[in-house]
Amino acid sequence: MLRALRGHIVDNEERPVADAAVDKGWATLLRRNGDEVVARWSEAAAQSLEGRMTRAELERDVREMYDALVAGVGEGDRHTLADASFAELRALLADVSHTRARQGFSSTETAVGVFALKEAMLGVLEEHGDLAAYRSFADFSRLIDELGLYMLEVYAQAREAVIGEQADALLELSTPVVKLWDGIISLPLVGTLDSARTQVVMEKLLQALVDTGSEHAIIDITGVPAVDTQVAQHLLKTVQAARLLGAECIISGIRPQIAQTVVALGIEFGDISTKASLSEALLAALRKQGTDVVRRTGRRDR
Fold this sequence. Notes:
Blueprint: H1 26-32, H2 34-49, H3 55-72, H4 87-102, H5 107-128, H6 131-173, E1 178-181, E2 184-190, H7 195-212, E3 216-223, H8 229-243, E4 248-252, H9 256-265, E5 273-274, H10 278-288
Parallel strand pairs: 2-3, 3-4, 4-5
Antiparallel strand pairs: 1-2
């Protein structure tokens, strides 16, 4: 989780009085009023994150961000997030953004934790500031805006990564290979068949053929909503790859609507066997391997 940065906060008693050059800026107020800033910051953030985090978790995050911010602040009040001194702060903000993205926080909820520092500092200025401190608040505000935008950028990248991982997981679940009979496997497809998914389908089918030693594979497209030229090409490539391993494929699930589309597009399946249903494809595969299927008539003996 987050790393606590310690030993960077200067207390009122420890700060030299002679440092008059920055005594009236936001950096000095930030350093000298740590507990008050953290309390105000936590309170402001809690108004937007109520119910999303416990107060203890929120205060911990705020304290760590405060410590990292103070650790990166040098002399004067003009700073940017790109400063080398803010390396620890950038790492901390990235950690918080990744964590909240995976926890399901929205981008607004992620960034509001940083923007709440503005309200906290305005409260401190009202209590302890003067005209010079108020003038420096513009520089402080620009820095906080940079922090919030940085968190939004990292959050967006983290959410994209999470979505990608979920898509990969769904892709694996949507392409199961089922053993129907000795020497016969089936690959039922559901949903759109694009290039990325075709690669997964081909790999899983070929691996299953090797693992099971099957000579027949049924590719069932009953759950594929439409077959166009691209989908047909994907299916043909999969069948050709299976043939290189010595296995024959049957494509099942050819509904009337799909048959009409295939004919209208002029798609040729060549010598590839096609069937209207999975049961017909299984029967055809059984006959190809020399297994007869006999339908019993009459009542069974009890």
